[in-house]
Amino acid sequence: MNDDYFRIKRIKGYQILDSRGNKTIRVKVETYGGISATGDAPAGASKGSREAIELRDQDGGVTRAIELVNSLINDSLRDFDVRNQLGIDLTLIKMDGTPNKSKIGGNTTIATSIAVVKAAAKSLGLEVFQYIGGPRIRYLPIPLLNILNGGLHAGNELKIQEFIIIPLKFDNFSEALFAADEVYKNLKGLVTERYGKVYTMLGDEGGIAPPLSKTEDALDLVYTAIKNSGYEDKIMMGIDAASSDFFDGNHYEIDGKKLTPDEMIDYYVNLASRYPLLYIEDPFNENDFARFSILQQKLKKSIITGDDLFTTNIEYLRKGIEMNSAKGTIVKPNQIGTLSETFEYIEFAKKNSIKTIVSHRSGETEDSFVADLAVGVQSDFIKTGAPARGERTSKYNRLIEIETDYGLEYYGKKIYL
């Protein structure tokens, strides 16, 4: 086949729905070789202030973004080779010309960027993860499953946004996932028994959202579900505090109390002394690099992780590395706006021994792309919600498919942290 086969013939935008029933953008890339592929833009409820800006209409729709895709982006990228990911992404970045993608929208750029990488893989007869990672791929990531929801992801009074289980000591990904699913079902049973079946309603990411207000009560429920399922020695726990959402500028309002930033350090240390908290994400507001560092020093065995702290931006990750703020970083492609910038971010993190957690958003679609991305970049972890709801299970099922067809090892088996 000649190079014309890989050249872009047309780029088209669609307005679709995400898992919260909100409008988002899908971009389709078609080549002269008859190949087509789509990319969807997810959306977060809890966002860092430094994230790439979504281009939205006043009513929340994305018709302006669609118009840009069908005109400016289509005209500018026509005849580009889909294998030239960097060239295409740099064109999008230059076309926007702002530091946070505010002109044409990070949702517009990431949907286009994803569609391009998928079209390139398809054109070459490769799986997306193979195209991204090449021959270095050996492992499947460890899943972080958010099985109990609070914060902006739920309708209860919990301030902590996510209560997470981490199936670590298993021989393969499928075994780890199915064990986590047992815990999830056991948790449903506990909530039904204590509060009634009506309170097994789900939060935005598929986790259960019982009528709780105190962090300790939620952790007790999750830990009990783990022990009842017989996985106390194999499944660890984690939380995503998303603490910027309950910080008023001076205090953190949590568990019916107002705590100072220094008191929050003791708060987390106390929790980690009572529960197997391997993972703590965004324990402080997005500007408090110093207290992230103090907590990481005090909890050397835990992976303190930045999401709002870094927003998939090398500038802020570099600062975090200089201050020893965290062992881990969330990777959300839509926070930065293109895959080329995402790849650069991941490479920088890995060079500095920062663990990577490729992540979904609370507003997702059924597209399983982040599963391929996590495998392709050999991420340590993947974070994509509870084992429920199609927009979450599509990612897990894709990882099972990859494991079954390509025999990749499970990263949890390698490290047993």
UniProtKB/TrEMBL annotation:
**Which GO terms label this protein's molecular function in UniProt?**
magnesium ion binding; phosphopyruvate hydratase activity
- Manner of cofactor binding, per the entry note: Binds a second Mg(2+) ion via substrate during catalysis.
Residues given in the record as Mg(2+) binding sites:
240, 281, 307
**Domain Enolase C-terminal TIM barrel: residue ranges:** 137-417
Which GO biological process categories is it annotated with?
glycolytic process
What's the superkingdom here?
Archaea
Q: Where in the cell is it found?
A: Cytoplasm; Secreted; Cell surface
- The UniProt record lists the EC number as 4.2.1.11
Task: Give the residue range of the signal peptide.
Answer: none
Q: Where is substrate bound in this sequence?
A: 153, 162, 281, 307, 359-362, 383
The record ties this protein, via PANTHER family, to: ENOLASE
Q: What is this protein called?
A: Enolase
Organism source for this protein? Sulfurisphaera javensis
Q: What is the lineage of its organism?
A: Archaea, Thermoproteota, Thermoprotei, Sulfolobales, Sulfolobaceae
Primary gene name: eno
